Amino acid sequence: MSATFFDFPFHLDGRNRSALTSEDDHIRDMIYQVLFTDPGERVNRPDFGCGLKTLVFMPNSDVLAAATQVLVKGSLQRWLQNEIQVEKVEVLSEDSTLTVTVVYTARATGERRTDQFVSPV
Asked: Given Cys at both, which of 4, 11, 60, 63 links 20, Cβ 3.0 to 4.6 Å?
């Protein structure tokens, strides 16, 4: 029997019960939360997140892109080290949209995945 997790964002399914999701989608949801939560946004864990949204409006440069990749990879390793092994992070900023590609291996299954996340602005 495979494990099930509450889906993010929390919502009700067609039966008016808490929506559930698979382990793969749960890991993707956790990565999304780390990427798009600003430090200070969570009361009981004020250092959680990586502040990626604040970088959307910074001037584009190779230096900013490199710094952003280091920031994202470090945050993912810090907060999700028990769930994933981060292999590669790519950040692309165009206009007011940030696209982050994360290549990682799920520790529970050993499966290598590539997921893309787009800023919610």
From this structure: 4
pLDDT in tens, the chain (121 residues): 356 777 776 767 788 887 777 778 888 988 998 998 889 898 999 999 988 877 766 666 667 777 888 889 999 999 999 999 999 999 887 766 778 899 999 998 899 999 998 876 5
Q: Exposed, middle or buried: residue 8 (CB in 10 Å: 0-12, 13-18, 19+)? A: middle
Report phi then psi at 91, rounded to 5.
-120, 130
SS3 67: helix
Radius of gyration for the alpha carbons in the chain, expressed in angstroms and rounded? 15
Report how far apart, in Å, the C-alpha atoms of 41 and of each of 45, 47, 55, 85 are: 8, 8, 16, 25
CA distance 15 to 117: 29
| DSSP three-state, residue 20 | strand
